[in-house]
Amino acid sequence: MNKETGSHLLAFNMRDLPSGVEKFLKDTFPQQQVEASYELTDGLSNKNYLVVIEQEKFVLKLYQSTFPKQSLLLQTRLSQGSDNVQKVVAWDQTTQSAIFNYVEALQQDLDKDAIVHLTHILAHIHQLAVNNTSTVLNLKQALNSLHQLFKLKFTREFDFAMGSFSRFPEDIGFCHNDLVKENCIASDTGVVVIDFEYASRGDIYFDLAALVTSFELKEDQIMNMLQAYYIQKKHIMPSYASRKLTAFRVVYLLLCIAWYEERGEAEKAASHIEHLKAIEII
């Protein structure tokens, strides 16, 4: 298993790539030979390949829907001078493909210290200066767009989540928006965050909710995480922080459950439903 993406490796001949993608790869690494290549088979959204070029590993990603040029530009900015954000090597909008440095995982899960480190990295990401005219992830609209039968299935949770947008002020920052465990890797340089495809301006509590869910943090760990986050930002933690995080965990879980169900990922959807049931909704 490839620990960077949580995918299994399948031997792959690069000549089977679309001709434009193969040319993009050759143009990026002129006069260098591809020594080995593998398809990463478990990705749900895009096609991913592990490519070894003169003993150095890279990830080649072929985007299957919208090409995230803005996210790639911002990821490039974040990774400059930082070992905690995956490096973008090159991208080609015509072929909807991008190349990234491969991040070697030292262990499967993050320990307590690594989660604190991830919290600090997240605080740094959220403070990235982004043009105020850029798109903001509209979570209220995303929830409203869910299928009516889904809303009926989770009526109490849906009403609670929708009410959170009027109960709490917005806390807007540059957000990753896909902080699943597989996108946070414990490497020899510390935690590295990868895959910024869905990154945009948005409410930072969506990322914090993802972190809590992905790493199954307990109540005391959640409070420690929040305190570490605001200390790192040099901000006073708002009095509503814990309550808002609970509400946004419900928002996050509802959107995840719907996303997994649409793709036939029943096991992952069921796991998130269990997380949802465990939250005390007042």
Descriptive key words:
282 residues, alpha+beta, Phosphorylase Kinase, domain 1, Aminoglycoside 3'-phosphotransferase, Chain: A, domain 2, 2 domains, two-stranded antiparallel ribbon, globular
What does this structure look like?
There is one protein chain. With 282 residues, this protein is an alpha+beta fold. The chain folds into 2 domains: 93 residues, Phosphorylase Kinase, domain 1 (2-Layer Sandwich), CATH 3.30.200; 166 residues, Aminoglycoside phosphotransferase (APH), C-terminal lobe (Aminoglycoside 3'-phosphotransferase, Chain: A, domain 2, Alpha-Beta Complex). It has 10 helices and 10 strands. It has a 6-stranded antiparallel beta sheet with strand order 1-2-3-4-6-5, with helices on both faces. Helix 3 crosses helix 8. The longest helix has 22 residues. It is globular, with a radius of gyration of 19 Å. The protein starts with 8 loop residues before the first strand and ends in a 5-residue tail after the last helix.
Radius of gyration: 19 Å
Mean pLDDT: 91
Distance between the termini: 42 Å
CATH homologous superfamily annotation of the largest domain: Aminoglycoside phosphotransferase (APH), C-terminal lobe
Biggest sheet overview: 6 strands, antiparallel
The CATH topology annotation of the largest domain reads as: Aminoglycoside 3'-phosphotransferase, Chain: A, domain 2
Under the CATH scheme, which class of the largest domain?
A: Alpha Beta
Order of helices and strands: EHEEEHEEHHHHEEEEHHHH
Portion in beta strands: 15-25%
Question: Which structural class fits the helix and strand makeup?
Answer: alpha+beta
How helix-rich are the residues, as a percent range?
40-55%
Our count of helices gives: 10
CATH architecture of the largest domain: Alpha-Beta Complex
Shape: globular
